[in-house]
Amino acid sequence: MASKLVAHLRAISSTHVSKFSAKPYHTLQLLNAITSQSQSPNLYCFRLISTTTLRSPSSGDSTQTQSQSQTKSSLKDIELAKFSAIADTWWDSEGPFKPLHAMNPTRVAFIRSTLCRHFRKDPLLPRPLEGIHVLDVGCGGGILSEPLARMGATVTGVDAVEKNINIARIHADLDSATSRIEYCCTTAEKLVEEQRKFDAVIALEVIEHVADPAEFCKSLSALTDPGAAVLISTINRSVRAYATAIVAAEYILNWLPKGTHQWSSFLTPEELVLILRRVSIDVREMAGFFYNPLTGRWSLSDDVGVNFIAFGAKIAQ
Q1: Is 231 annotated in some ligand binding site?
Q2: Residues 244, 13: contact at Cβ < 8 Å?
Q3: pTM score of the predicted model
Q4: Which of 82, 224, 310, 315 has an alpha carbon 20 to 30 Å from 31's alpha carbon atom?
Q5: How far is CA 121 from the centre of its chain?
Q6: Helices (H) and strands (E) in the chain — how many of each?
């Protein structure tokens, strides 16, 4: 059974390669070529317009609706409920967040490399991100915020689920190296209203859970000044991603609760690049994440057909 599954995953991974596949750290020319095509950008982003309708509140939600109307949020209520239900398991490396724990070292390696290069820091130093104020949007239980803090960054972690923030605070207080992380139960949109600014804004595996990706990216951009960095990771809307990230991960391997992801909410790399370009974020580097089912390890790849991460810089408007 196991050998058949491995063979099946190998077959999937060798087909349906994304038309946007570039070596990490060498994507600038390709990204510029995409955004300068003679075709209208709307051809790439038409799906976003038709799938970003917010949930209509019931009459019993009038009080909540009134308070929410003061600060627009791109988050889906149904997604908040999903993550609230499993908040207590954030630091269980064998629980629902097992894939994130397994992928985290590879994500951190990409972040460390790109931020050090962008801010001219020495990546070999024990605390290479010293002096950089990083915002971790959708921080969950803090599994990214903590390694960033250990690398010397001043970290603010925000999440719209209060249970997530409570778990993150408790865990961070267990170690003096992470106890100074600022955790807030809030959204990127509210931080924009507060006129907060950061040197780097990171949103990993978040954008596929928001109602309006374009508005979400607009908020991320508003939290930065020209020269700041923005990193986003997500899942490609490809046939192979449906087979691996949904069918295999949720229904065969049971790595994630069923219904965690909706294929229609995924973005292609082309769409993400164009959305970010429209809010003055110039995507300069991109890499894929490759999972080896034989070793159980993740590594960076030039294949962005399933999981991928993008690094961009805020440019002057």
Answers
A1: no
A2: yes
A3: 0.75
A4: 224
A5: 23
A6: 12, 8
208 among annotated binding-site residues: yes
Upper half-sphere CA count for residue 157 (Cβ side, 13 Å)? 28
HEC profile for 213-254?
A: HHHHHHHHHHCCCCCCEEEEEEECCCHHHHHHHHHHHHHHCC
On whether the CB atoms of residues 65 and 260 are closer than 8 A, the answer is no
182 is in an annotated binding site: no
Structure tokens at 201: 């804004």
Query: Is 199 annotated as contributing to ligand binding?
Result: no
Angle between helices 77-85 and 162-172 (to 10 degrees): 40
**Which pLDDT tens digit goes with each residue over 242-272?**
787 767 666 776 766 676 667 677 899 999 9
Residue 84: the pLDDT is 73
At 285, is the secondary structure helix, strand, or coil? Answer: strand
Per the listing, tokens 């038709």 go with 50
**Where are the alpha helices (H) located in the chain, listed in sequence order?**
2-13, 28-35, 42-50, 62-69, 77-85, 98-118, 145-150, 162-172, 188-193, 213-222, 239-241, 269-278
Residue 107 in marked binding region:
yes
> Angle CA(128)–CA(132)–CA(136) in degrees, nearest 5?
105
Distance CA 46, CA 49 (A): 6
Residue 204 among known ligand-binding residues: yes
Give dist(CA 223, CA 314) in Å, integer: 10
φ/ψ of 143, rounded to 5, equals -70, -15
CA angle 299, 300, 303 (to 5 degrees): 115
Q: Which two tokens stand for residue 183?
A: 């955790």
Q: What are the tokens at 91?
A: 């630091």
pLDDT at position 165: 97
> Residue 45 has what pLDDT?
29
270 is in an annotated binding site: no
Estimate to the nearest angstrom the gap between the alpha carbon of 276 and the chain centroid.
13
pLDDT in tens, 109-160: 999 999 999 999 999 999 999 999 999 999 999 999 999 999 999 999 999 9
